[in-house]
Write a structure and sequence with these properties.
The complex is a heterodimer.
Chain A: H1 12-37, H2 59-68, H3 70-100, H4 106-115, H5 121-134, H6 141-149, H7 153-164, H8 168-176, H9 181-192, H10 194-210, H11 213-218, H12 227-235, H13 242-262, H14 264-276
Chain B: H1 2-18, H2 24-52, E1 55-56, E2 64-65, H3 69-76, H4 78-111, H5 116-124, H6 131-141, H7 148-155, H8 170-194, H9 199-207, H10 212-223, H11 225-250, H12 262-272, H13 276-304
Antiparallel strand pairs in B: 1-2
The chains are: A mainly alpha, B mainly alpha.
């Protein structure tokens, strides 16, 4: 609508104030969290509210880390990283088979598999819980991780679409050189898909890091808790110390925020990818 | 010499054609992880869930056959009407503003010249917060006595409202927070959709003297309808299945079930009251609703979605 050169138009008078207003609405909850997280128990209740705490109560963060506990953070890292790794493996393998191998009823099987994406997670949640009980996996890492890895229909679909766009000639000539499908997968398909793998990895990590319902169902002991469970417990009911609570919230957001600052484009691409390239 | 060089190529090519389906052992290898996980954690649970829904079962103790009793109970329960109304209120109340706002913001962000990426960074920021963390923050914002929202409200001349503990305001409060949280995702999808609209159309419209609003109404809106369709579907799904986290942290369905929705009630019945059979029946009914919604949306899309 406007080109790159500096050109003031009256529409700016509407455009920029609107932009500022929207950005404030997006950011204020974060600033308020940060501000509260550095306040002592009395200042939290100050009225009218103050934005800049005095003094800065850094010990809130130490207390928050103590409450969440290092073990819980470690659990979340193990949980999210395993899901990225294993779901990545399962979905790229499946996507590769559907896009690049020839076998009977390939497209019919693929369509059937796609259809399962429509089934709400709530439908499988209860019976899956019972399967996990029967396997003796309650309160274990495998109980947390494996059923989530199994929700790979969307990833398989996405990778299939992406792998199908890689030029056919590359595969033809590699096959003529005697490459078997495992080599085609490891040495041709995956290296050519680095951008889409990264975007998928980032989005999957974010989703897994934020997961709350499934861990809440499977975890039975303090040692197996993940971060969202700890935050939910702190925030549930009437809070005694908002400063520590908001420090805990900030700590839980921190890893994703760091990821966000390093690779905003992977987030945006990941979402655009999951959204647009159907 | 020439012949011997040509021979292997011919042979290979025929083998290639004959072996059109020869990859199947490899396919089995590549699909095995998917297949095993699918059978154990998807196919079996789907069937098993339907089976459980026909029993009265407290998870400990024996299953008692009740046939369609759980389904009959659901339609006779006083809570059901409230659940349905709350779910519709929550989904429609969030989806409509979400669509309008995300298209508006995407258009603004697409138009802005200076600090393009800085603006996007600010607008997309809510993405970094998990639903649980966001719920914790908004619970604090909504607090009656020291909450920032009531402070602003009082400054503007209103009275303090106990947003989350008030049957009238609790659900709208959840809706506002939901919109804040889902907006970045939808905006990003719309931004990607806007890039697909050919610039030449805008240029042609400018030659004809079209204003910004006309261009938006007559070019942008019709040409992003495929994105709008997609955004509606995604939003419906994330509202229907994702609302658990924020409800459990902010209101736990209260006060007096005023924020209790379908998916939250399924969780309560299954994992708080251990009514596994009843909860499974509810889950299957939800599946039916989602199925009808999806089919309806697909059927209707021919009427309003423009594909090139």
């Amino acid at each position: 609508m406007s080109d790159k050169r500096f050109r003031f138009t009256p529409s700016w008078l509407v455009l920029y104030p609107l932009l500022v207003l929207g950005a404030l609405a997006a950011v204020i909850p974060f600033l308020w969290t940060l501000s509260t997280s550095l306040k002592g128990p009395e200042e939290v209740f100050a009225y009218p509210p103050r934005w800049i705490p005095s003094p800065f109560v850094w010990s809130n963060y130490a207390d928050a880390f103590h409450i969440i506990s290092g073990r819980t953070f470690l659990n979340s890292v193990i949980f999210a990283a395993s899901i990225v790794l294993f779901q990545g493996l399962v979905t790229t393998m499946g996507g590769f088979a559907f896009a690049r191998l020839r076998f009977p009823f390939r497209d019919q099987v693929f369509l059937l598999y796609l259809g399962t994406m429509m089934i709400p997670p709530q439908v499988t949640m209860i019976p899956t819980f019972i399967v996990v009980v029967e396997l003796g996996w309650i309160n274990t890492y495998q109980g947390l991780i494996v059923p989530i890895v199994a929700q790979g229909a969307f990833g398989t679909f996405m990778f299939r679409q992406f792998f199908a766009k890689i030029p056919n000639e590359l595969y033809e000539s590699a096959r003529l050189d005697g490459a078997n499908p495992l080599q085609l997968y490891l040495q041709l398909t995956l290296p050519l898909s680095r951008p889409v793998l990264t975007a998928y990895g980032v989005i999957t990590f974010l989703t897994a890091w934020n997961m709350y319902l499934w861990p809440l169902i499977v975890v039975r002991s303090t040692e197996m808790k993940v971060v969202p469970m700890a935050i939910a417990e702190l925030a549930g009911g009437f809070s005694r110390d908002r400063g520590v609570e908001m420090a805990a919230v900030s700590l839980s957001i921190l890893p994703i925020l760091v990821l966000w600052v390093i690779g905003q484009r992977w987030f945006v691409e990941g979402i655009a990818l999951t959204g647009m390239k159907g | 010499m020439a012949l011997s060089q040509a021979m292997p190529r011919v042979r290979q090519r025929t083998r290639f054609r004959l072996g059109a389906n020869r990859d199947w052992p490899w396919a089995l290898f590549f699909l095995a992880p998917n297949l095993i996980l699918f059978l154990v954690f998807f196919a079996y649970p789907i069937v098993y869930g339907l089976y459980i829904s026909l029993f009265d079962w407290k998870i400990i103790g024996p299953k008692k056959w009740v046939g369609i009793g759980n389904y009959v109970d659901f339609f006779g329960d006083d809570l059901t009407r409230k659940l349905l109304w709350n779910s519709i209120y929550y989904v429609v109340g969030s989806t409509v503003p979400l669509i309008l706002l995300s298209l508006g913001i995407a258009t603004l962000l697409n138009t802005v010249v200076y600090g393009k990426y800085a603006w996007r960074g600010l607008y997309f920021l809510p993405l970094v917060s998990s639903p649980v963390a966001a719920a914790a923050v908004w619970k604090w914002l909504y607090a009656k006595d020291q909450g920032l929202i009531n402070y602003a409200f009082v400054q503007l001349g209103g009275d303090r409202i106990d947003w989350l503990y008030n049957t009238r305001w609790a659900l709208p409060s959840l809706i506002l927070m939901t919109i804040w949280q889902l907006l970045p995702f939808n905006t990003i999808v719309y931004l990607a959709g806007l890039q697909e609209v050919p610039r030449s159309l805008y240029d042609a419209a400018e030659v004809d003297g079209a204003t910004g609003w006309r261009k938006f109404r007559d070019i942008t809106i019709p040409l992003v309808t495929p994105t709008t369709f997609f955004v509606i579907m995604i939003t419906l799904f994330s509202l229907l299945f994702g609302s658990f986290d924020i409800i459990n942290v902010m209101t736990q369905g209260g006060p007096i079930d005023s924020t209790n929705v379908f998916v939250y009630n399924i969780y309560q019945n299954a994992f708080k009251f251990f009514r596994m059979g009843y909860a499974s029946a509810e889950a299957y009914l939800l599946f039916l609703v989602v199925f009808v919604l999806t089919l309806g949306n697909w059927a209707l899309q021919k009427r309003w979605v423009h594909y090139e």
